Amino acid sequence: MASVVAKVLGSDFSRLHPKVQWRFGLQSSDDLAQFGVGVMEEMTHSRLVPPPLLWAGRTRGLFPAGVGKDVPFTIANYAYVDELGRETLSFVRRFAFPGRPQGMNSVMVSSAVSDAYALDYLGFSSDMVVHTTCRVDDEGGLVLESEVPRFLLGPVAPKLPKVASAVTIGREWWDSAEERHRIEIEVQSPVLGQLFLYRGWFTAEERPCRSADVPEQARPRSVESRE
Predict the structure, then answer these.
(1) Residues 6-50: pLDDT tens digits?
(2) Helix ranges restricted to H, the chain
């Protein structure tokens, strides 16, 4: 079974830098996990973001709501097959803001509808889902573009109109000069402009990890099938 990103990219996966292939080629059959340590050089958000949204993002693990420079962080990636039989890549991020550490969890799974995109379920309890397309840039980096999020609220899953919501563009690439991974994530609103910006670097290593050994914190509290 191919990794989630390899399935979306198809033959373009080979165009990724080998270090980026290593990062996003992780799949359940590898019996491995990846652990990264680094620094977010800049983490910021617009003053136009409502405080209740920042509170929800922080407490539900949807996104970091702090502002700072040179914030230490860790990222752990686990690959497993979820309860619905989907290849899954889990991201567990922790940010060491002074006095108030914050977390952001997400799982990326293959879509049952289309190979053109993956599904990203965001938060400790998969409160949101976004369709994420993948492409390779000229430097062999991976660009992830996420559409307007859909909120999974009980039996309904409303999707905000683009005029009221935002889209996310993330890029991860290998910095050959510094020999480390770099990442930049920007959340843009068509009306309000840039809402969030995160950029930084990290180094990573892999360790043995069977699917049965994936920790509970790396799995969402509820598994969603809605796309």
Answers:
(1) 999 999 999 999 999 999 999 999 999 999 999 999 999 998 888
(2) 4-9, 18-24, 51-60
Distance CA 45, CA 109 (A): 28
Q: Residue 203's closest CA among 78, 34, 70? A: 34
Q: How far apart are CA 95 and CA 173, in angstroms?
A: 20
Residue range 19-30, pLDDT digits in tens: 999 999 999 999
Smallest CA-to-CA distance from 64 within 40, 36, 33 is with: 40
What is each CA distance from 207 to 36, 74, 76, 92, in whole angstroms? 11, 15, 11, 15
* Cβ atoms of 140 and 16 closer than 8 Å: yes
With a threshold of 0.70, does the pTM exceed it? yes
Start-to-end Cα distance in the chain: 21
Question: Other C-beta atoms within 10 Å of 124: how many?
Answer: 18
Tokens of 35: 């652990």
Which strand (E) or helix (H) includes residue 194? strand 193-208
What residue ranges in 46-175 does DSSP mark as E strands?
68-81, 87-95, 102-110, 118-122, 128-136, 142-146, 150-151, 167-175
For residue 225, the model assigns a pLDDT of 86
Mean pLDDT, range 77-88, rounded to an integer: 95
